[in-house]
């Protein structure tokens, strides 16, 4: 198992494209199960104004032969804080990179973006229909309610 960050001091990558995601062997390769990562304080930058955008990101996946190493995922997500991108591109881009590199049986991502300009934007992507018999809990993020 070769990892770049695990057990080592690691600086935050300058950009998502420079971030290295590490994958390790799935400890339960024959089992169908769900892994969830939540990043409730995710940030990126608006590509037009350069102002910060905030989101609660939830990533669910059913592992194939590998799983993503969590420290490398944390650093990858942190690299977006200086990255300019529309909510749709950022959310779908994270999901597709994980899916393309890790090759899970199934993956979905929910980007629950906080409003800027008065309108929240929620973005969802999944690789395909979920495998039969995979337990899919609700992502647990409430719709934005403002002050109410």
From TrEMBL:
It catalyses: 7-aminomethyl-7-carbaguanine + 2 NADP(+) = 7-cyano-7-carbaguanine + 2 NADPH + 3 H(+). Substrate binds at residues 68-70, 87-88. Its main location: cytoplasm. It is found in: Cytoplasm. It is an enzyme of class 1 (oxidoreductase). Pathway: tRNA modification; tRNA-queuosine biosynthesis. Keywords: Cytoplasm, NADP, Oxidoreductase, Queuosine biosynthesis. Catalyzes the NADPH-dependent reduction of 7-cyano-7-deazaguanine (preQ0) to 7-aminomethyl-7-deazaguanine (preQ1). Belongs to the GTP cyclohydrolase I family. QueF type 1 subfamily. This is NADPH-dependent 7-cyano-7-deazaguanine reductase.
